[in-house]
Amino acid sequence: CMKDGAMTGSIAGLKRFTSPVKGRGLQVTRPFKVGELLFSSPAYSCVLSVKERGSCCEFCFSRKEGLARCGKCRKACYCDLKCQKGDWPMHKLECSAMTAFGENWCPSETTRLVARILAKKKMQKEPSASEKMLLIGELQSHLEDEDNEKREGTEADIAALYRFYSKHLEMPDHKDLLTLYSQVACNGFTVEDDELFQMGAAIYPDVALINHSCLPSVIVTYNGTSSEVRAVQNMKPGDEVLISYIDLLYPTEDRNKRLRESYYFTCDCNECKTKSKDNAKVKVRKRSDPFEPQVISNMVRYGRNSIREFRFKCLNSLARPSELLEMCEQSLEEMGAVFDDSNVYMLHMMYQAMGVCIYMQDADGAIRYGKKLLKPYSKLYPPYSLNVSSMYLKLGRIYMNVERRSEGVSALKKALAIMEVAHGKDHPYIKEVRREMGQK
């Protein structure tokens, strides 16, 4: 939502720019302090994850008990009649189809979001000036860069769009659909809660203008279905607004591989040029007879393969939780012969092991892995990282559940110190954590 280079419908102090190298971006026109809100943005379109149904309101994403179910499909849940009415223009795309298809109703989250974007475009017969600026057509597409595997996935998604939504939607031509899916892939946001669990997906055209850096100046958090952008560095007029598109834990080569695969560019921020944290991230065990470089590079390859295999088995439900935990323990043992405990490939597997322990309600196991993660996380992530605050939060809540209150309060305080900057002091998550600590 821009007008003559300045942002409208949000906080003054931001302007849009275009450069030959970076394309479009945002910069600040006044100083911003750490923790200050640059702007908040309602979702152009959003969708709640299927796995969150029953736990969260389909319309406002509030997580609460006692939600009311849609009387027709008995799947979608709402806070009240107001939320149900607000969601009906979008829910009606799915309501009867879910009942008709039953277990065979299985569009991807991307397809569900695309269906809502198409419905929204149709609803905007004569959009206002600000809505015109929000239209999805402004967003970047990388259709020409996609490989065969990605294109095949998109074709399968388009087939599902026709199968599940043709009753309610007029479909654009095939090329336009391919472009729209590409735009959603490049510009979509995963809406996450305070512990970084995925709640849904959304499109925020304003936030999509922000370029990537591995040394971000701002952070994006979510308040219901709105996104909020806050400074995590002090900013002066002319500074570019920069977020991270990816998990910053990994070394430079891994980060740029992910950026190329998902966003089709290579980062040249100062961290990528200097690789200043790479040695700490791929730290090996100290010993009098140092490891051969080949031994280290082989173990890095093993670590990457282990991560890929674990992810594949999780996504496709190919292993029971106990088998997943065994996979983590096995790869930790293998890598631990060469890698230090603070090595990022070790940390990744410890994080996965902690998640499996939480799922299996093994508090002792989750605490054991969580404690090992915290110190290296605090060192390797940038300041005010949600990855660090969510780890303190998870650990603090586990301590509270097993009545280790003083350790719980201590961990939750550390989470709060980061969250008050990243989420703002009045965010519902902050109030909730204070309540858990017994504060008002």
UniProtKB/TrEMBL annotation:
A single GO molecular function term of this UniProt record: zinc ion binding
Family matches, as InterPro entries: H3K4_H4K5_MeTrfase (IPR050869), SET_dom (IPR001214), SET_dom_sf (IPR046341), TPR-like_helical_dom_sf (IPR011990), Znf_MYND (IPR002893)
EC number: 2.1.1.354
Keyword list, A-Z: Metal-binding, Methyltransferase, S-adenosyl-L-methionine, Transferase, Zinc, Zinc-finger
GO cellular component: nucleus
Catalytic activity: L-lysyl(4)-[histone H3] + 3 S-adenosyl-L-methionine = N(6),N(6),N(6)-trimethyl-L-lysyl(4)-[histone H3] + 3 S-adenosyl-L-homocysteine + 3 H(+)
Keyword Transmembrane helix: no
Domain MYND-type: 57-95
Keyword S-adenosyl-L-methionine: yes
Residue ranges of domain SET in the record: 12-246
Superkingdom of origin organism: Eukaryota
One annotated GO biological process: heart development
UniProt name for this protein: [histone H3]-lysine(4) N-trimethyltransferase
Organism, scientific name: Nothobranchius furzeri (Turquoise killifish)
Species classification: Eukaryota, Metazoa, Chordata, Craniata, Vertebrata
